[in-house]
Amino acid sequence: MRTDQSSQRNNSSGSEVSLDIPPNAIYNTSRDYIVQTEENEKLNCCTFTKDWLRQLSSNVFRKKTLYKRLPILTWLPKYNRNDFIGDLMAGITVGLTVIPQGLAYAGIAGLDLQYGLYGCFLGCFIYIFLGSSKDVPVGPTAISALLTFQTTHGLWQKAVLLTFLSGLIEIAMGIFRLGFLIDFVSGPVSAGFTSAGSLIIFTSQLKDLLGVNTNGDTFVDMWFSIFGDIHNISWNDAGLGVCCIVVLLTMRAMAGMSFGPKEGKTCWQKFFSTLFWLIGTSRNAVLVVVSAIVGYYLLQADIDIFRMVGYVPKGLPQFQLPPFTMTTITNSTSGEVTEVHESFTHMVSSLGSGLIVVPLISLLENMAVVQAFANGKPCDATQELIAVGVCNVVNSFAQGFRGNGGIARGAVLNSSGVRTQLSNLYTGIIVIVALLYLTPTFYYIPKATLAAIIMAAVIFMIQYRVIKPMWRKSDLIPGLATFVACLVLPLQLGILVGIGINILFILYHAARPRLRVETLSTSNDIKYLMLTPDRCLIFPSVEFVRNVITKQGRKSTLPVVIDCTHIYGADYTAAKVVSTMIGDFEARQQKLYFFNLQPRVAQVFESLHKDLTVLYDMNSLEIKLSGKEEDHSKL
């Protein structure tokens, strides 16, 4: 390889600097400065593995790692009375929210209502020790409930097993630092998935709001089922459900009301502002209590006009291993009893892609909460994976279905003045109290009320505001494709389709880099073509770059200079194509120069073509283009 080096002395304007080109330097720009790195020590495989294990063990067994993996050690020593009051109020507020939500989300998952509460307390206790964010209330969410239903089809054994296995997968992802995987779920894909999921959840609740069948795994199937059973609408339930939705939306607006000026409020103004906020925030609990009271008195008066939730088992769940086998007993129309036994491997295979999608979406939801209230602080996706994974593994021993941080409850927690992760303790205690003493009252809750709670919440998950910023941009395509795929396919397959389309866009942009083509002149009026690729050369893009350079070179007889400022990496395929391109230019007797090629890239190119001319400053380029004699040195 030929490398031309020359020095430029400072002129009167001071715009030129003297460059001394070291043999093992990395050149960050063609005209600004040079950064040199130390030569890496050559290590054999055994030495490298030994050093890596030593470094890994030193990183694991040190105080900094301990505090990072057990965040409670950071905030607990500083805990004070103000923290206790803030956490107590926030925990109680979220506890009043999570009880009706847990009951409703169990309905989305196709499970008995008690399973929604089983997943709302044990994970809260674990997150106190392992959680990195004070604003994450662990429990079932609407999206996780829907994914659970579409993966397990309402079988509690498979739902608990999914909680266990997905938790193990999350722990493994955290150990191997795979939190970066959510970077492949772009904003448009996430918006399309969330919007489609909210429409599916909304549609699924029509069975309790209207009293019609909503069978099917997809949005389209559900609506076919609804239209087929539309004549069986329960008008009493429908009227109650609509009224509940109106009340919930009104109470939601109350939470944002404020009396008096922002500063200098009177005592009465503060009292009413706080009262309206408390009523609006606790709207789900207030509605459930009022509906249960109405339902109780109607049944006592032998007025059976609403479908009730029915019996909910009292007490804590039985703590045991997750079900690794199951036996399903079904009655056929002929009265024959059929018993089907499923082994562990069959149960796992039936979960399918849910084992991949559920942990990924869980991480996406959880990090959305963490980042929303981080106030600019760094977010540790690895620690959140480990924390939520352990929470779900432990939840599975209490027969709970999976959960994670939810953005709605996170907003309630944050606005309630939460101070530390200890707020989860009080939320968990409230759920335990409800399981021990309040489950008999759940019998009188109308099903339409729980449906209204879900429907009034998910309508705000439809992210229609992102359409305008994405309009007439390529981002709209993966977002729209994800939205449509999630509606016509099962949700876990729809999100994979969206991610796949998004990755195709990424690969397309990687395979089609931009090249800036300029016709420039030296100080002595010698014209040349300057082509500047905007990224590294790898096998998907190198053939395209070669075709563009060759096409531009054939259009004229001018020398061609490739500005390699942004080429910070190359592979064997790139070196092979560059070698062929150099041969083509030599055959046409047209000059081809590489400007500011980094040494590590030059070594790759040199492996296949020794006759490589590299220039590192404008003076050398002018000398080369003018055809004057210059010194050559071998690298």
Automatic annotation (TrEMBL):
Localization per record: Membrane
Chief site of localization: membrane
Keyword Metal-binding in record: no
This protein's name: Sodium-independent sulfate anion transporter
Region (Disordered): 1-22
Parts of the chain that traverse the membrane: 88-107, 113-130, 159-180, 238-255, 275-299, 425-444, 450-467, 479-508
One Pfam family this sequence matches: STAS
PANTHER family found in the cross-reference section: SULFATE TRANSPORTER
Bilayer topology annotation: Multi-pass membrane protein
STAS domain: residues covered: 525-609
Gene Ontology biological-process annotations: transmembrane transport
Limits of the SLC26A/SulP transporter domain: 84-474
Skewed-composition ranges (Polar residues): 1-16
GO CC annotations on file: membrane
Originating organism: Glossina pallidipes
